[in-house]
């Protein structure tokens, strides 16, 4: 069993930055690849970025590539999402998710992730 808790969301002006954190509890965190997803009002949940179990591989959605950076700290059971050059269209609830496998990518269906956090709101004003 893995529990995930996101934090770090908030209100920021366009062009600003935020750093999201996902804290995991439970055993064998390093056995899971991790992903960040987001869901805006009236839209489907969409993949943002994934990271392999050891951080060696990442996959970014085209919409965030070059602006967002994912990282993980297995010793402290955390995953981070550094978001720079934020745009109003980045406004959404951001979720972290754990996948019992070594690698995730944009093609990994959300329903194959094993655990989800409750989400944290990110609002970018223009």
Secondary-structure class: mainly beta
Shape descriptor reads globular
Poorly predicted tracts of residues:
none
> How many DSSP E strands?
11
Query: How would you characterize the largest beta sheet?
Result: 7 strands, mixed
Oligomeric organization of the protein chains:
single chain
So how many helices?
A: 0
Order of helices and strands: EEEEEEEEEEE
What is the mean pLDDT?
96
Gyration radius over CA: 13 Å
Strand fraction band?
Answer: over 45%
Helix share of residues? under 10%
N→C terminal distance: 40 Å
3D architecture notes:
The chain contains no helices and eleven strands. With 126 residues, it is mostly beta strands. The strands form two sheets. Strands 2, 4, 5, 6, 9, 10 and 11 form a seven-stranded mixed sheet that branches. Strand 7 (68-73) and strand 8 (78-83) form a beta hairpin. The radius of gyration is 13 Å and the shape is globular.
Structure described in brief:
The protein is an all-beta fold. 0% of the residues lie in helices and 48% in strands.
Show the helix and strand layout:
Blueprint: E1 3-7, E2 10-13, E3 18-25, E4 33-39, E5 46-51, E6 58-60, E7 68-73, E8 78-83, E9 92-99, E10 115-116, E11 120-125
Parallel strand pairs: 2-11
Antiparallel strand pairs: 1-3, 3-8, 4-5, 4-9, 5-6, 7-8, 9-10, 9-11
Core attributes:
126 residues; 11 strands; four-stranded antiparallel β-sheet; mainly beta; seven-stranded mixed β-sheet; globular
């Amino acid at each position: 069993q893995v529990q995930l808790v996101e934090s770090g969301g908030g209100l920021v002006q366009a062009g600003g930055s935020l750093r999201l954190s996902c804290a995991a509890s439970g055993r064998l965190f390093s056995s899971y690849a991790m992903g960040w997803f987001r869901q805006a009002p009236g839209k489907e949940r969409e993949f943002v970025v994934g990271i392999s179990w050891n951080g060696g591989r990442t996959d970014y959605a085209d919409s965030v590539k070059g602006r967002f950076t994912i990282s993980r700290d297995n010793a402290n059971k955390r995953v981070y999402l550094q978001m720079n050059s934020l745009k109003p269209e980045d406004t959404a609830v951001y979720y972290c998710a754990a996948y019992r496998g070594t690698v995730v990518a944009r093609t990994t269906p959300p329903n194959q992730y094993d655990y989800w956090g409750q989400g944290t709101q990110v609002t970018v004003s223009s």
